[in-house]
Amino acid sequence: MMHLTKQIGKQTIKFQNPPIITATSSMAGPKEGEGPLKDYFDIICDDILNGCESWEKAESQYVHDNIKNLCEKTKTKFEDVDYIISGDLLNQDTATIFGIRDFGIPYMGVFGACSTMGESIGLGSILVDGGFAKKVIASASSHFCSAEKQFRFPLDLGTQRPPTSTWTVTGDGAVIIEKEGKGPKVTFLTTGKIIDMGVKDANNMGAVMAPAAVETMTAHFRDTGRSPDYYDVIATGDLGYLGKDIVLELMAYRGYNIKNNYTDCGIEIFDREKQDTHCGGSGCACSAVTFCGYYYKKLINKEINKMLFIPTGALMSTTSSQQGESIPAIAHAVAIENME
């Protein structure tokens, strides 16, 4: 039987030669550009349509512009990138596909809903550590208007949003993962399992995804032998205020105290009171732009050195919701550390 030297426990990979996140780029929409993280984003677009004729085309333009900026700021030629691994919330990842179709880079499309950034970073790191690639771009995007139109109600209806709802982040986050270079390293990947608690409310993403975050977080600590206080920051992807409270309660029930270093990207990206975002932020871009803009700069500046990044996703579709299905969820944990 072959011995899997990089697999520890049931769900976790320990990278033998930890891949390096050498650069990031973050592009945010107008509402995000008015929030508390505005000074951390590379590009803030003051037009939610981004000069396009539809929300969907606007999201593709966000993807195109941000990945192009990532390559330009690092003087990376498209032909030097081995793969793009990316996804979004639209049917069949169309925001990503039309955003990158002119780049000529080998593409692997992923769907993890709002957990996509964790999935894409994890898979990109596997390729680099495994010797299958030297340079990979991992990315994820979402758009408030296109997500509302697809999963809830068209904005023109003026439907009232309940207190449990979160605000889908408009933007794109992208990273370059390399074998060599300078930057924080991806040391562990804990891949999540599908968790379905029977919740059917598409306006309560926190309750849907929090149990998945807890399952993955617990698996990470069990597989690695690490305790929560090993990390300077533990950040889930887009649970918002309600989801964060659920995570704290469930983790405490399992014997883990994470109050001192746990937060959620959906809480960090908006000012809840001033911006009226109810429970906070969500969407693929929530964790993507928050990591690529805010946390990556903190890692580079050594303000934090050890981070557990856990994007969370609701694995629903318009069809499944219309047919009365509950909303399954998943979360992927990526350990990112300064090791110099």
CATH class of the largest domain: Alpha Beta
Largest sheet: 7 strands, mixed
Give Rg in angstroms: 18 Å
CA(first)-CA(last) distance: 36 Å
- Overall, the morphology is globular
Q: How many DSSP H or I helices?
A: 10
H and E string:
EEEEHEHEHEHEEEHEHEHHEHEEHEE
Number of strands: 17
The count of domains is 2
Quote the CATH topology of the largest domain: Peroxisomal Thiolase, Chain A, domain 1
User: What would CATH call the architecture of the largest domain?
Assistant: 3-Layer(aba) Sandwich
Instruction: Classify the beta-strand content into a percent band.
Output: 15-25%
Low-confidence stretches: none
Q: Which structural class matches the secondary elements?
A: alpha/beta
Q: Give the proportion of residues in helices.
A: 25-40%
Mean pLDDT: 90
Strand order of the largest sheet: 1-2-10-17-14-11-12
By CATH, the superfamily of the largest domain comes out as Stage V sporulation protein AD
Architecture overview:
This protein is of the alpha/beta class. It folds into 2 domains: 19-178, Peroxisomal Thiolase, Chain A, domain 1, CATH 3.40.47.40; 185-337, Stage V sporulation protein AD (Peroxisomal Thiolase, Chain A, domain 1). Helices cover 33% and strands 21% of the residues. The chain is built from 10 helices and 17 strands. The strands form 4 sheets. A 7-stranded mixed beta sheet has the order 1-2-10-17-14-11-12. A 6-stranded mixed beta sheet has the order 4-3-9-7-5-6, sandwiched between helices. Helix 2 (94-100) links the parallel strand 5 and strand 6 (107-109). The radius of gyration is 18 Å and the shape is globular.
